[in-house]
Amino acid sequence: MEGEVTLFEKPEELIRWLDENDLLMGLEEMDAEILLNYMEGHGYSIGSRDGKLVRTDICEENGEVEDYSIDDVIDAVCEWNYELVLEASDERDNPSDFIDFCRSQSRYDSYKEDEKCLDKMFDKTCYGKEVEELATRLANEAIKRMEESKKLETVSENVLAYQIDKKEMVR
C-alpha cells in the first residue's frame, strides 16, 4: 500500500522538500509560488508521497496521483504560460473596447513577467540542459560549415585568380 500524500500549500514547503531531497534547483519563494499557482490554476497540486514528488488531480474527489519530477512541473508550467501568453496577446490585439484591451494587456504583462522567471527555472531542468547541448552542437556545426564554405570560397578565388593570370600571360 502506498503512503499518504502531503500536498504543498505554501512555496516554502516546496522549497524545503527540494532542499531536503537534494534537488538543488535554487528556487526562490516567488519561483515556487508561480509553480504552485499555475498547477492549481490547471487543476493540479504537487506534494510528496513516500519520498517522491507527486502531482495530484484536485478537480476530482479522489483525483489521480502520479509521480512527477520537478523538471516535469517546470516544463508543464512553462507550456501553460506560453499558451496563456499567446491567448492574452490575441485578446489584446482584438479587444472589444478599451477596457478589454487594458485587461488583456495587464494579463499579457503578468504572463511575460512569469515567463522571465520560468525561463531561468527551465534552464536548470534536464530539458533545459538538453536544449542547451543541442543548441551548442548546432552552433558548432554551423560554424564548421561556414569555415568549410570559406575554404571553398578561397579555393575558388585562387582558381579564378590563376585563370586570370594564365590569360594575361598568353597575351
Write up what this structure looks like.
The chain has 171 residues and is an alpha+beta fold. It has a domain at 6-124. Helices cover 69% and strands 10% of the residues. The protein has five helices and four strands; from the N terminus they run βααβββααα. The protein has helices at 11-20, 29-41, 70-93, 98-123, 126-170; strands spanning 6-7, 44-49, 52-57, 65-67. It has a four-stranded antiparallel sheet with strand order 1-2-3-4, with helices on one face. A hairpin with a 2-residue loop joins strand 2 (44-49) and strand 3 (52-57). The longest helix has 45 residues, at 126-170. The chain starts with 5 loop residues before the first strand and ends with a helix. The mean pLDDT is 89.
